[in-house]
Design brief:
Blueprint lengths: L2 H19 L3 H56 L3 H74 L5 H61 L1
Length: about 220
C-alpha cells in the first residue's frame, strides 16, 4: 500500500470518527483538506527533487557516453596515424568513461523508476484529494441539515411550554370571557325590554277590556 493511499484511508477514518463525535464537521473537514493540500505540496517538492536527481544522472551518463564515443574515434585516428601508444591511452580512457557511463546509466534507471512511482503516487493523492473535496461538499450539506433539524427539534420540544404560547392561551381566555360577558349583557337587556313591552301591552289590554266591559254592563242595565 502506498504512502498516499494510507494517508487517504486515514483521512476517511478520521472523517467518520469526526462525524460520530458530532463536533464541528465543517471546520474539521476544511482542516483535513488543508492538511491534504500541504501533504500534496510536500510530495510535489519531493517528486521535483527526485526528477532533478534523475536528470542529473541522465546528464552524467550522456556526458560519459559521449566521451566513450569520442575516445573511440580518437583511438582509431591515432592508429591510422601510427600512434598506437596514443591510441592505447585513448582506449584506456574510453574504458574508464564506459565504466562511468554504465554506473551513471544504472543510477539513472534506478532513480527514474523511483521518480515514476512517486509521480504515480502523487497523481493518486491528487485524485484522492479531489474526491475528498467532493465528499466534503456533501458532508457539509448533511451536517448543516442535521444541525437545522436539531435546532427545530429543540424548539419543538419546548414549543407547548414556552411563555409565548401560554400568553396566547391566557389572552384567548380573556377574549372568550369578554365575549361571554358582552353576550350576557345583550340577553339581559333584551329580556328587560321584552318584559316592559309585555307589561305595557298588558296594561293597555286591560284598559280596553275594562272600557268595553263597562259599556256592556251599562247596556244590559238600561234594558232592564
Amino acid at each position: 500500500m502506498s504512502l498516499f493511499k494510507r494517508i487517504g484511508d486515514n483521512i476517511r477514518a478520521n472523517i467518520n470518527s469526526l462525524l460520530d463525535k458530532a463536533e464541528d464537521p465543517v471546520k474539521m473537514l476544511e482542516q483535513y483538506l488543508r492538511d491534504m493540500a500541504e501533504d500534496i505540496a510536500e510530495a510535489e517538492t519531493a517528486v521535483a527533487k527526485q526528477i532533478a536527481v534523475v536528470k542529473r544522472f541522465e546528464a552524467q551518463y550522456q556526458e560519459a557516453q559521449a566521451m566513450v564515443e569520442k575516445r573511440e574515434s580518437q583511438a582509431m585516428a591515432a592508429v591510422e596515424s601510427g600512434r598506437e601508444d596514443l591510441a592505447r591511452r585513448a582506449l584506456e580512457d574510453k574504458r574508464l568513461n564506459q565504466t562511468k557511463a554504465d554506473e551513471f546509466y544504472a543510477q539513472y534507471q534506478q532513480y527514474r523508476d523511483v521518480a515514476d512511482r512517486l509521480k504515480l503516487q502523487l497523481t493518486d493523492m491528487k485524485e484522492e484529494y479531489e474526491k475528498m473535496k467532493a465528499r466534503k461538499a456533501a458532508l457539509v450539506a448533511r451536517a448543516q441539515a442535521a444541525k437545522a433539524q436539531k435546532s427545530v427539534n429543540d424548539v419543538m420540544s419546548g414549543f407547548g411550554k414556552n411563555n409565548a404560547r401560554g400568553g396566547f392561551e391566557r389572552m384567548e381566555e380573556k377574549v372568550l370571557q369578554a365575549e361571554a360577558e358582552a353576550q350576557a349583557g345583550i340577553e339581559l337587556r333584551s329580556s328587560g325590554d321584552n318584559l316592559d313591552d309585555e307589561l305595557a301591552a298588558l296594561g293597555q289590554g286591560t284598559s280596553d277590556i275594562d272600557i268595553e266591559m263597562q259599556r256592556l254592563r251599562e247596556k244590559v242595565k238600561n234594558r232592564q
